[in-house]
Amino acid sequence: MRPSRRAPDQMRPVSLERGVARYAEGSCLVKFGETHVLVAATLEDKMPMWLKGQGRGWITAEYGMLPRATHERTRREASTGRPSGRTQEIQRLVGRALRAVVDLPLMGERQITIDCDVLQADGGTRTAAITGAWVALHDCFNWMKARSMISRIPLKDHVAAVSCGIHDGVPVLDLDYLEDSNAHTDANFVLTGAGGIVEIQGTAEKEPFSEAELLALMALARTGIGELVALQKQAVA
């Protein structure tokens, strides 16, 4: 039995609440159980210098954890002068995941910045951020279309993410912190609505895992992503 008493293929309760940031062009408060992430999408006319004149847009992301998102206070990274390696890794992952499902030329030469702020952390903050970011980005594109800035929504597909792992020898879906911190294998899967693989991050925390175990985790991830995409569709309907 999992510490949360969930079945191996059972997600935590997930919710996607749109329009929670009044001034953002798109926003979503995403909850994976006790992990809560506020995602806001900001449209900007400025572009990275290396992209100017190429006739396409860009999507980038920033990620941060509030000081009391965890049991003990953590220092704001702004006070240290630079983001940690973990933060940079997650920011890049969120940006890659979204760009994989966007027709960038349809955006024109504009940039959308996705801010992911973790309000409360209980494992899976990056997967929650990606799943909620798709909703915020969708609403940002709707905002642009309503103002005739784009002719149609540039999204080619959904994208969502979920964690899986091997806990007490059993492959399980959507790890909370207690499972994540004790898992023998921990993996994050980023998949599109059509089932395409955007990214897989997998690590053996103790013993190496087998190909059969990887496939078992992938099967669980596809189940979870299917549920998340269905929730995304309901949220923006």
Automatic annotation (TrEMBL):
It catalyses: tRNA(n+1) + phosphate = tRNA(n) + a ribonucleoside 5'-diphosphate. It is an enzyme of class 2 (transferase). The keyword Nucleotidyltransferase applies. GO terms for molecular function: 3'-5'-RNA exonuclease activity; tRNA binding; tRNA nucleotidyltransferase activity. Phosphate binds at R86, G124, T125, R126. Keywords: Nucleotidyltransferase, RNA-binding, rRNA processing, Transferase, tRNA processing, tRNA-binding. Its EC number is 2.7.7.56. InterPro entries: ExoRNase_PH_dom1, ExoRNase_PH_dom2, ExoRNase_PH_dom2_sf, PNPase/RNase_PH_dom_sf, Ribosomal_Su5_D2-typ_SF, RNase_PH, RNase_PH_bac-type, RNase_PH_CS. GO terms for biological process: rRNA 3'-end processing; rRNA catabolic process; tRNA processing. Pfam families: RNase_PH, RNase_PH_C. Residues 10-140, 159-223 form the Exoribonuclease phosphorolytic domain. Phosphorolytic 3'-5' exoribonuclease that plays an important role in tRNA 3'-end maturation. Removes nucleotide residues following the 3'-CCA terminus of tRNAs; can also add nucleotides to the ends of RNA molecules by using nucleoside diphosphates as substrates, but this may not be physiologically important. Probably plays a role in initiation of 16S rRNA degradation (leading to ribosome degradation) during starvation. HAMAP family: RNase_PH (MF_00564). Homohexameric ring arranged as a trimer of dimers. This is Ribonuclease PH. It comes from Blastochloris viridis (Rhodopseudomonas viridis). The gene is rph.
